[in-house]
Amino acid sequence: MPPALTPDSQFIVKEEKWLNYIMAILFSALFLYGLIDAILLQFRNIDYQSIIFSLALIPAWLFFRKAQSKRVYIRVNRKGIYQDERLVTSWKGLLKATIGQKEKTITIKDNFMLILEFVKDDPKKGYRKMIPLTNTQNQAEEDVLAAVHYFWKLYRQQPIP
């Protein structure tokens, strides 16, 4: 269930900062393990394990950067649905909103998408936009869809010019 929504509120999807910090700490610990192992061996006869663990610095840095990010992936409010602060569609043009999963082979993560079907100026020409929902976002897929339906229902009751 999304946080309590009101007609003047906004539903914002960003990075889950704590999850990214935890992942950054875990990968940093792996890096330190590899570094300490290499130091104990005085950088001689280093095995592949130390090298692999040393490479953990890269994902640690990436997760730390994601945790520091202020990027807003999706914003849903009384005016419409935004992706990266750009209006995708206003409520006037929205036809359908669903959650789907992009089929990919050989993957270990979910590939959920917010699928929007809408029209712009020409009602005969429809558009479909698939907005990816990240695995490290701060809102559940069901909450995103519930927020979209809440504001869409609100618009149908009291259309905004």
Write up this protein:
By secondary structure, the chain is an alpha+beta fold. It has a domain at 79-157. 37% of the residues lie in helices and 26% in strands. The protein has helices at residues 17-40, 48-54, 57-68, 141-157; strands at 11-14, 72-77, 80-83, 86-90, 94-101, 112-119, 126-132.
Task: Output the helix-strand order.
Answer: EHHHEEEEEEH
With helices defined by DSSP (H or I, 4 residues minimum), what is the helix count? 4
Helix content: 25-40%
Distance between the termini: 29 Å
Main sheet characteristics: 4 strands, antiparallel
* Shape category: elongated
Unreliable sequence segments: none
Overall residue-averaged pLDDT value:
87
SS elements, strand count: 7
Strand order of the largest sheet: 1-2-3-4
Strand-residue proportion: 25-35%
Radius of gyration: 22 Å
Structural class: alpha+beta
How would you describe this structure in keywords?
single chain, about 160 residues, alpha+beta, four-stranded antiparallel β-sheet, 4 helices, about 25% strand, elongated
Topology:
Blueprint: E1 11-14, H1 17-40, H2 48-54, H3 57-68, E2 72-77, E3 80-83, E4 86-90, E5 94-101, E6 112-119, E7 126-132, H4 141-157
Antiparallel strand pairs: 1-2, 2-3, 3-4, 5-6, 6-7
Summarize the structure.
This protein has 161 residues and is an alpha+beta fold.
